[in-house]
Amino acid sequence: MSVTAARGFLASGVAVGIKESGAPDLALVVNRGPSRAAAGVFTSNRVQAAPVRWSRRALADGRLSAVVLNSGGANACTGPGGAGDTRTMAEHTARQTDLAADEVAVCSTGLIGVRLPMDRVTAGIATAADQLSPEGGEDAAVAIKTTDSAHKTAVAAGDGWTVGGMAKGAGMLAPGLATMLVVLTTDADAGAEVLDAALREAVRTTFDRVDSDGCMSTNDTVLLLASGASGVVPDPTRFTAAVHAVCQDLARQLVADAEGASKEIEVAVVGAASEADAVEVGRSVARNNLLKCALHGEDPNWGRVLSAIGTTSAVFDPDLLDVAINGVWVCRDGAEGEPRDKVDLSDRRITVTVDLRSGDSRAVVWTNDLTAEYVHENSAYSS
Amino acid sequence: MSVTAARGFLASGVAVGIKESGAPDLALVVNRGPSRAAAGVFTSNRVQAAPVRWSRRALADGRLSAVVLNSGGANACTGPGGAGDTRTMAEHTARQTDLAADEVAVCSTGLIGVRLPMDRVTAGIATAADQLSPEGGEDAAVAIKTTDSAHKTAVAAGDGWTVGGMAKGAGMLAPGLATMLVVLTTDADAGAEVLDAALREAVRTTFDRVDSDGCMSTNDTVLLLASGASGVVPDPTRFTAAVHAVCQDLARQLVADAEGASKEIEVAVVGAASEADAVEVGRSVARNNLLKCALHGEDPNWGRVLSAIGTTSAVFDPDLLDVAINGVWVCRDGAEGEPRDKVDLSDRRITVTVDLRSGDSRAVVWTNDLTAEYVHENSAYSS
């Protein structure tokens, strides 16, 4: 399924030796058209990897014909040499697929600051091009894995059209390996503006609300390519809903697979004066290391939630804050509420609800617990 | 030495049964004058513990005669009942020491959201008052410990006057127990305005630059009390320098004793367009969990430094960033510099230097590594 669920797309995933492990590490996605419309969202980190800089330019005209992706190296902070490597990847891909290099987006993921083994990459692109197939979506999804324990794909069906996609990442903002990469495809006949509007709306409330460890990557990229092969012009509302559904599904898979995590935590903020307030409070709670440790230990430590809320600029009265953990209102009016013993934290999924009692807006942010395994994975990786 | 190094002060520290362990948990500091001038700095968290709210009001006139401190409970998020408990602590202290309650500051530290056992606290205040002594500074410093592995004191001598102090906290912004508490005393004859100016300048570049885990407490309090007992009016510059020296000493002790830490990390930002830029970058680097894990694993992962810099609004060009780890410039011009193998991270102290190459301003932020022990201590504490 994955990126080849929609008609008009070919994909492949191969092992070309970028990873020392010999695991698959290079993927191609090619749009056979008739349309080449595309949209993209990139990391807001000001230190951006060479492939991010390249893909942003390639997308400037709202068109993409192919994406080449590699795991095993982020090609970030690699200077002019790294920029040249990205250009070479686009050019080789274009040559192998009879396209122009400026129609090819490039995505890389892995360790920052290390150049790619370009002889293997260019040879690998030829192999990947040979293996392009309408059934290649799964192979592509496997080839972009880094610390992911499973490959991640999702599909949503519309009225005669389909949206499918693949993602890699162990928590969006948790990239020990620097990156969340997502490629979405559709055979709907939608122009670049419709794609862009749908993608931005979907990302805003899905990938942008995942905050696994507060660390923003240099490589995060989400692309949406449309082939128009269904011949159907989608209703914009239904199309946006489908893109949102696929993004939501993939985002939850990222949280579920975050590095070293033992809990998936949903922070739901309600009663906010504005959605911005709700998101600010949600992020602050989701990033609080002390709370994340407490929830790891199955300790419903609501004091740490209040402590995190207090660092924000959101509208609230400290003496009118309510907090529920897994539905038990352990904090009422900014003080002790129902007995903490009533909270059962044994399940993997935990919900923390904050009622700011200042309005009608709400937002949800997803995160994970902080574990010794997280420390181990992220202290052992590059050595 | 501690808070009784300066003349005119009595102190005591006793075990009154707030802590189940039976360890000392209540301290008194009394200023015998002739002056009662004082200054204070409090947490900027908007969720503030009852003792913080009380002490802020008590200090409004620039005078304090005593401080009562307890460990074993933060009295934060405890509602109107908790506010009443703080008032009772001040009133009992005032009665035992022939003072007015509004001259008594209150500091509490420990778990958030739990009421104090007030029968034990009030009985304990009487015991502590009985034991007040000009040699009681060490006992007071011991009685305010929570997860601190050692009590923390420091002293600086001026021209005929002395500044001394005590601190508790396992990293300023790392309070598993919600709090850094600091009480400084001096026998210099300085008015409230001089004290306030000296304290704010000292705190700004010491306690405010310690960022152990990015979590801001509901109880953080730094107080400076002057007895004037030396009869010497200090030179303001020398006085500020002495207060700064004591704060710096205590701040370093906090970092050295942060929960579960195995490394003390100094993030030095130079070449910044402004001090604010330097602090923003320093904090962002100091709060990056991925970097803190890498340094724990003695991995000079400079890519994570750049990733953290990129999330700030500071003035810099991503292609003109230099980063040194323990003096080795592993990143030059935003890309790989000297070989990472040259970096020796075996010592407990690590320095990360960031050169933004955008100006002449600089700042230092101190933090710790992120360890499995931090996770353990903070997931096990309140359960």
From TrEMBL, chains A, B:
Pathways per UniProt: Amino-acid biosynthesis; L-arginine biosynthesis; L-ornithine and N-acetyl-L-glutamate from L-glutamate and N(2)-acetyl-L-ornithine (cyclic): step 1/1; Amino-acid biosynthesis; L-arginine biosynthesis; N(2)-acetyl-L-ornithine from L-glutamate: step 1/4
GO molecular function: L-glutamate N-acetyltransferase activity, acting on acetyl-L-ornithine as donor
Top-rank lineage group of the source organism: Bacteria
Pfam families: ArgJ
Site (Cleavage) location in chain: 178-179
Major place of residence: cytoplasm
Keywords: Acyltransferase, Amino-acid biosynthesis, Arginine biosynthesis, Autocatalytic cleavage, Cytoplasm, Multifunctional enzyme, Transferase
Binding site for substrate: 146, 168, 179, 259, 378, 383
Active-site residue list: 179 (nucleophile)
EC id: 2.3.1.35, 2.3.1.1
Family: Belongs to the ArgJ family.
NCBIfam families per the UniProt record, alphabetical: ArgJ, PRK05388.1
Function: Catalyzes two activities which are involved in the cyclic version of arginine biosynthesis: the synthesis of N-acetylglutamate from glutamate and acetyl-CoA as the acetyl donor, and of ornithine by transacetylation between N(2)-acetylornithine and glutamate.
PANTHER family: ARGININE BIOSYNTHESIS BIFUNCTIONAL PROTEIN ARGJ (PTHR23100), ARGININE BIOSYNTHESIS BIFUNCTIONAL PROTEIN ARGJ, MITOCHONDRIAL (PTHR23100:SF0)
The protein's assembly and partners: Heterotetramer of two alpha and two beta chains.
Stated name of the protein: Arginine biosynthesis bifunctional protein ArgJ
Organism, as annotated: Streptomyces pyxinicus
Gene that produces this protein: argJ
